[in-house]
Write a structure and sequence with these properties.
This protein is mainly β. It has no helices and eight strands. The chain starts with 16 loop residues before the first strand and ends in a 13-residue tail after the last strand.
Length: 99
């Protein structure tokens, strides 16, 4: 039907054709785009941007992942960017028996 709406075909199941493909129809590159999603705002997109959920829609944002290095001394982790994190005391014992 050419009214732009989905209609259930009585006695039929599954997708019969999509974008000129028939038979077993599987998604292909180019079938979909972000602009087809109603809750995605891609304005302001640039290299290395990521999608983030702002509570009501997906928006473009910076990738805030930053690496950190540190060193452990005793029960303290000292981070390269500053700051220390106390670590819990760990105790382990192992019993070995050779028979």
């Amino acid at each position: 039907m050419a009214d732009g709406k989905w209609h259930k075909l009585t006695g039929e199941s599954g997708v019969k054709s999509f974008k000129g493909r028939t038979g077993v129809v599987t998604p292909q590159t180019g079938d979909y785009s972000m602009s087809q999603l109603g809750d995605v705002d891609t304005s302001g997109i640039q290299l290395d941007s990521v999608l983030k959920w702002d509570g009501s829609k997906w928006v473009i944002g910076s990738d805030n992942t930053a690496g950190a290095n540190g060193a452990i001394s005793g029960n303290t982790l000292t981070l390269s960017g500053g700051g220390e994190l106390p670590l819990p005391e760990m105790q382990a014992s192992v019993e070995l028996s050779m028979e």
